[in-house]
Amino acid sequence: MNPKLDDRAREAARSLHAGAVNRPVTAAPRRGRRRELALVAAAIALVVGAIAVVATNSDDQASITPQTRPAPTVAPTVTPQAPNCGEQSAQAPWPRTRFARATWAEAGTLVATFAHTELGLPRQVPDGPSSCSFQIRGDAGPMDVILGGNETTGFFVSWFGYEFSLRAPLSIQISGLHVEVHTTSCPGCSHVMNITYADTEVRLTSTTGAFEGDLPRRSSGPGTIVVLTRNARGQLVRALGTAIPDGNFAVS
Amino acid sequence: VCIANDEAPPDLTSLGGAGDFDEFWRLERARFVALAAALTGDWAAAEDLVQDAFLAAHRRWSTIDNPTAWMRRVISNRAVSRWRRRTREAEAFARLANRREPVMLEPQDTEFWKAVRELPRRQSQVIALHYLDDLSVVEIASVLGIAEGTVKVTLSTGRRALARALQCALDEENER
């Protein structure tokens, strides 16, 4: 006798719900991949680094202080010192966040280090600054992602571009290995980043102001650039774009 | 049709304040992932899809009257559309396609959801909402923004097709 469809559907639904509930929020890279995939995964896993650049001089010239990468820890509760941000918590995890750590640098800027994602790209960056949305424009057009934040929910960071709300205009100009960030809400706040490539990570360092950035580089294909900085009001500015292995950025 | 979960879903229709978003996410995320997984057949894609739907909801939070229904609609539509293929994400997935993580369930359950995904787009949506979230015809119509009559026909057609594909018997009394 054939089973009844509804009985079978019931079991299939129960199974799927159980599977969804039991999915880990933070999944470790799995073993047993084929060699070439393992190599890719290994490269990806090492991809992302973070630096903190703290503006210490009175003339707003930044001293650049790359941070050593500590062992992954639970995201701490932090109190940024930037104005208008209030007390915030770097809260992890959102789903699928391969989140290693989040600390606040001395200037109140968030340093987030991502351990790994399946594609080596950051998915979400938990933090909690004030709500802010920005427009990102590159020389070749708008950058493909910018995020909004919320004091309650923290930040969503999507890893590829989708629609985004635009409030405080900001522009990013990309030329060769330099990136300039301008916020119209903060005239004169211009951050020029030098981009250097290492074997496993790309660093953006500011020469003109407080800045921090993560730029993962993939072994092939596009990666994602994550730019984190703050404008004069202490709002966290994020941008994601596409990094390509030849040392340039592609914006779309 | 039985409810898949032992507990009835909480009433989130009154949510809408920014402060409720976290609670909404906490309560509903797994249910949405299940729906997305049923329609995509891939955990990673499902979680990405749900995350992006949450992102979209977050941006419209103050304007969404019924976030659960809104999310179901977004997930249902995006899961069966070629939404992901329009993104550059697809390029990366294409290169690393065999790194994807298919939904692994018991073989008979895997077969069931595979058969659901092989139905025409609207049928798969209706079937998934019907069986997975135990939604009524009225609720499915509301979620998908289609007429109740359309839901009834689609559900009936889909169930018959599913029964044929899976060689199952239909219990006509369960059609709602």
Brief characterization of the structure:
The complex is a heterodimer of chains A (252) and B (176). Chain A is built from 2 helices and 17 strands. A 9-stranded mixed beta sheet of chain A has the order 7-10-11-12-13-14-15-16-17, with no helix packed on it.
Describe this structure in words.
The complex is a heterodimer of chains A (252) and B (176). Chain A is mainly beta. Chain A is built from two helices and 17 strands. The N and C termini of chain A lie far apart (58 Å). The model of chain A is unreliable at 25-252 (pLDDT under 50). Chain B has 176 residues and is mainly α. Chain B contains eight helices and no strands. Chain B starts with 20 loop residues before the first helix and ends in a 10-residue tail after the last helix. Classes of the chains: A mainly beta (252), B mainly alpha (176). The interface between A and B is large, with 50 and 61 residues.
Defining key terms:
heterodimer; A: 252 residues; mainly beta; two-stranded antiparallel ribbon; 2 helices; B: globular; disordered N terminus
- In DSSP terms, counting alpha (H) and pi (I) runs of 4 or more, how many helices of chain A? 2
Biggest sheet features of chain B? none
Which band does the percent of strand residues of chain B land in?
A: under 5%
The total of beta strands of chain A comes to 17
Going by helix content, strand content and strand pairing, the class of chain B is: mainly alpha
Judging from the principal axes of the Cα atoms, what is the shape of chain A? globular
Low-confidence stretches of chain B: 1-19, 83-100
Number of strand segments of chain B: 0
Radius of gyration of chain B: 16 Å
Indicate the mean pLDDT of chain A.
35
Rg of chain A, Å, rounded: 20 Å
Please render the helix and strand layout as text.
The complex is a heterodimer of chains A (252) and B (176).
Chain A: H1 5-21, H2 35-45, E1 52-55, E2 62-65, E3 77-78, E4 88-89, E5 99-104, E6 110-114, E7 134-135, E8 137-138, E9 141-142, E10 168-175, E11 178-183, E12 186-197, E13 202-206, E14 212-215, E15 223-230, E16 236-243, E17 249-250
Parallel strand pairs in A: 7-10
Antiparallel strand pairs in A: 1-2, 3-4, 5-6, 8-9, 10-11, 11-12, 12-13, 13-14, 14-15, 15-16, 16-17
Chain B: H1 21-40, H2 43-59, H3 67-80, H4 89-95, H5 107-117, H6 121-132, H7 137-144, H8 148-166
